[in-house]
């Protein structure tokens, strides 16, 4: 039997007094693409942040296994080194640190963790050029401060570029499609599709079904008020697009 | 350029630095015997110091004049720093290593001192060969090791301790000492003038380019002994010299006063580059102990087309009060100030520069990068003054502040006095913060917090670090990382 990459069981998390995740269950196998949809404020970004290890959120119940290991007891950097990658909904700007320096540091940290020797400057530059082509990034960006003065679309593409560089086991994309025009959306989706492999999985968080025309998911989930209230095939996304979220909300309320 | 690329490649060094338990690495005391005069300050102490150093009568009189002036001066309190009152009578004003009689080569240097240097990572014998740096090592107050003398001598360059210069080159010393920082310039300069122990003297003759970076390592080593260095550098017409000053100091509890004076004189077409990495003991996390660093550094561009450039990386000291300045007297002269000042825990720094434009077409450039963490206070204080005579003066100032955490303070006090309508003075300032969002983002990419801070700091400080000679730049980068350890997370 194939072991899941990610197994979330009855996950509850809160900020201060406020419970935001209220019992999330999700199992992701290698090679799969899961989409998580849901109205604003339902807890999608919170789920991503909790998985990545953001300290603002307190896990009160439940467990998360990542490749069979207890994810919740790892530091954020160790989660990353174990192969968990989050493409941020709002990537930060880091003044004075070039994309190249930043990524070289990150990549060599991951390599160290895997017992590999660090890449030298030449090897690293070559890898950057190769992967940049995947998401149509101009190598001129490498020497610019990370995300500083980048447009929204450039920042999102830079996230996917980093994904391509760091080659994670599991990539969580938090609304990578928001703020992208159709051309940029295609570039991002093509990049992601090129990075799909039999042992890598994706969790694609999105507000719109549009992205899922390009990155075709195996399973679609609806997160609402901190719980996955419905899961289905990609047709579910189309149905949500056509009918909105209200009918599911009503279903959920009836059940609750 | 070479240096810039180097830092980009120095991520590995940072890794190393941040992975080890580095604490205050240089916090040890060496076991060399010391000769200390009793605490207190009066004319007899000054006579004792002068006699011990075998000084001529004019030098003694100069010191006594300074002492008399000092007695009527008040300790300045305008800086944005706070400390307990200093008891100047509780300080011992002179300490000299006992067996430090004029070594001619490294073999003659006290083995214990040499071990001290090894621990500091300054193996002199290797430096001679590898780095091409002439090291005039000052342990406490007396110079005990000098290298590359012969090579410098063949070019007519004088590089020796101040004591030796007073004996061997009295005319040069009398002509220039106190001309940039007069003995009564300020309270601490007057004190220094009265009791200065030793320091470095450098004279580069006309048309000579000093082929190596001149370097001095200062080290405070005797408990309760004030440190009063006196440095004088003269670049004659068309000469060039680059001088490096670096400090490390042993861990101790009691506050120590350090009041140095540095004077630079650049004649026509001459250039002086003065670089500092300051790493005096900053005190512990609660602010106990640490060095009081009250320094007067000033240069004068005396001749046309001359240039003076100060670069400083300030990571140490409990309190820093320091304004390396330039008087732009010669027409077309250039003054520069590049500074990174880091404060962490309870450290306080009030530092900056004064650029005084006197000659025509004079230009000055100020780049100040403050970094505050912990509960520290970091102030930039700068004055740009354009005198009526300074036609077409230009100044550009960039003052940036970076905050780590929300308990620290960053302050900027820029003063601008323009008395000539042709002047163009520009001032830019930014404040940024290394917040949780940035650190979490780095963590999510596999970069731990300490490495992330080091990475960001080095990016932020790059413009200043790139002005340092390369071997210094690497050391400075390490110091930045070390001094910010434990500031987040
Ligand atoms: N750090 C936080 N502090 C307080 N409230 C938060 C925080 N993060 C999220 N929330 C709240 O939790 C809910 C879910 O937010 P989020 O996970 O961002 O939703 P989504 O990504 O689905 O739009 C929202 O009501 C939001 O205001
Ligand atoms: Mg969101």
Notable traits:
heterodimer; A: 256 residues; alpha/beta; 6-stranded mixed sheet; 36% helix; globular; B: 489 residues; 11-stranded mixed sheet; 14 helices; 26% helix; binds adenosine-5'-diphosphate; binds magnesium ion
Major sheet attributes of chain B: 11 strands, mixed
Alpha-carbon Rg of chain A, integer: 18 Å
The global form of chain A is globular
Biggest β-sheet of chain A, characterized? 6 strands, mixed
Précis, in short:
The complex is a heterodimer of chains A (256) and B (489). Chain A is α/β, with parallel strands linked by helices and 256 residues long. Chain A is built from eight helices and twelve strands.
Question: How would you characterize this protein structure?
Answer:
Chain A is an alpha/beta fold. In chain A, 36% of the residues lie in helices and 27% in strands. Chain A is built from eight helices and twelve strands. Chain A has helices spanning 44-52, 76-81, 99-113, 121-134, 152-166, 182-194, 234-243, 246-255; strands spanning 6-15, 18-28, 33-37, 58-66, 69-70, 84-87, 94-98, 145-146, 170-174, 201-205, 219-224, 227-232. Chain A is globular. The two termini of chain A are 34 Å apart. Chain B is of the alpha/beta class and 489 residues long. Chain B has a domain at 2-322. Chain B has helices spanning 2-8, 11-19, 43-52, 57-71, 111-119, 124-131, 149-154, 162-168, 170-176, 187-195, 436-444, 449-460, 462-465, 470-483; strands at residues 34-36, 95-97, 134-139, 142-146, 158-161, 200-204, 214-219, 230-235, 240-247, 256-258, 261-266, 271-278, 291-301, 307-314, 319-322, 325-328, 334-343, 348-357, 363-372, 377-386, 394-404, 409-418, 424-434. In chain B, strands 5, 6, 8, 10, 11, 13, 15, 16, 18, 20 and 22 form an eleven-stranded mixed beta sheet that branches. Chain B has a ten-stranded mixed beta sheet with strand order 4-3-7-9-12-14-17-19-21-23. Residues 1-29, 98-103, 125-135, 137-147 and 217-225 of chain B have low confidence and may be disordered. At the A-B interface, α2, β7 and α3 of A face α2, α11 and α12 of B. Bound molecules: adenosine-5'-diphosphate and magnesium ion. Adenosine-5'-diphosphate binds next to α1 of chain A.
């Amino acid at each position: 039997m194939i072991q899941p990459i990610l197994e979330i069981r009855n996950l509850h998390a809160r900020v201060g007094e406020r419970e935001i995740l209220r019992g999330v269950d999700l199992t992701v196998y290698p090679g799969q693409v899961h989409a998580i949809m849901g109205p604003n404020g339902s807890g999608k970004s919170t789920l991503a942040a909790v998985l990545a290890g953001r300290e603002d959120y307190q896990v009160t119940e439940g467990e998360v296994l990542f490749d069979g290991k207890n994810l919740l007891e790892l530091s954020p950097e160790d989660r990353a080194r174990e192969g968990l990658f989050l493409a941020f909904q709002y990537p930060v700007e880091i003044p004075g640190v070039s994309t190249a320096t930043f990524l070289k540091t990150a990549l060599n940290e991951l390599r160290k963790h895997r017992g590999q020797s660090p890449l030298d400057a030449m090897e690293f530059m070559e890898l950057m050029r190769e992967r940049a082509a995947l998401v149509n990034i101009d190598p001129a960006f490498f020497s610019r401060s990370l995300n500083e003065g980048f447009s929204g679309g450039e920042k999102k593409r830079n996230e996917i570029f980093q994904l391509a560089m760091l080659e994670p086991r599991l990539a969580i994309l938090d609304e990578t499609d928001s703020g992208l025009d159709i051309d940029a959306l295609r570039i991002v989706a093509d990049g992601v599709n090129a990075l799909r492999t039999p042992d890598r999985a994706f969790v694609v968080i999105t507000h719109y079904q549009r992205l899922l025309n390009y990155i075709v998911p195996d399973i679609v989930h609806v997160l609402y008020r901190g719980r996955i209230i419905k899961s289905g095939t990609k047709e579910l996304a189309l149905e949500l697009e056509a009918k909105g979220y209200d009918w599911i909300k009503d279903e959920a309320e009836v059940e609750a | 350029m070479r240096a810039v690329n180097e830092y980009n490649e120095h991520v590995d060094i940072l890794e190393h630095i941040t992975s080890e338990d580095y604490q205050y690495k240089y916090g040890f005391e060496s076991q060399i015997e010391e000769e200390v005069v009793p605490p207190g300050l009066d004319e007899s102490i000054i006579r004792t110091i002068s006699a011990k150093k075998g000084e001529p009568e004019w030098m003694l009189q100069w010191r006594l004049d300074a002492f008399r002036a000092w007695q009527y001066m008040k300790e300045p309190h305008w800086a944005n720093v706070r400390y307990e009152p200093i008891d100047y009578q509780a300080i011992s004003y002179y300490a000299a290593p006992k067996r430090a009689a004029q070594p001619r080569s490294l073999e003659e240097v006290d083995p214990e001192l040499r071990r001290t240097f090894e621990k500091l990572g300054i193996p002199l014998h290797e430096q001679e060969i590898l780095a091409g740096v002439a090291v005039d090592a000052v342990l406490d107050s007396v110079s005990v090791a000098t290298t590359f003398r012969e090579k410098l001598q063949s070019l007519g360059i004088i590089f020796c301790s101040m004591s030796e210069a007073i004996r061997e080159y009295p005319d040069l010393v009398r002509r220039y000492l106190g001309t940039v920082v007069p003995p009564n310039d300020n309270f601490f300069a007057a004190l220094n003038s009265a009791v200065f122990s030793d320091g470095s003297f450098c004279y580069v003759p006309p048309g000579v380019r000093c082929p190596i970076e001149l370097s001095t390592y200062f080290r405070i080593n005797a408990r309760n002994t004030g440190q009063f260095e006196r440095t004088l550098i003269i670049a004659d017409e068309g000469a060039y010299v680059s001088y490096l000053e670096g400090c490390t100091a042993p861990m101790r509890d009691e506050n120590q006063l350090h009041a140095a004076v540095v004077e630079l004189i650049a004649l026509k077409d001459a250039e002086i580059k003065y670089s500092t990495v300051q790493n005096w003991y900053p005190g512990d996390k609660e602010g106990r102990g640490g060095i009081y660093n009250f320094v007067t550094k000033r240069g004068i561009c005396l001749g046309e087309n001359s240039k003076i450039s100060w670069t400083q990386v300030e990571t140490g000291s409990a309190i820093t009060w320091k304004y390396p300045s330039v008087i732009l007297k010669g027409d077309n002269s250039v003054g520069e100030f590049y500074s990174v000042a880091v404060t962490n825990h309870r450290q306080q720094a009030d530092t900056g520069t004064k650029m005084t434009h006197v000659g025509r077409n004079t230009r000055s450039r100020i780049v100040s990068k403050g970094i505050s963490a912990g509960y520290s206070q970091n102030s930039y204080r700068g004055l740009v003054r354009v005198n009526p005579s300074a036609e077409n003066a230009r100044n550009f100032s960039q003052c940036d502040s970076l905050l780590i955490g929300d308990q620290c303070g960053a302050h900027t006090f820029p003063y601008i006095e323009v008395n000539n309508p042709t002047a163009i003075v520009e001032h830019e300032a930014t404040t940024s913060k290394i917040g949780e969002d940035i650190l979490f983002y780095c963590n999510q990419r596999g970069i731990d917090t300490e490495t992330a801070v080091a990475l960001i700091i080095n990016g932020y400080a790059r413009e200043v670090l790139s002005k340092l000679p390369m071997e210094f730049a690497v050391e400075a980068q390490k110091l930045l990382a070390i001094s910010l350890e434990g500031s987040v997370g």
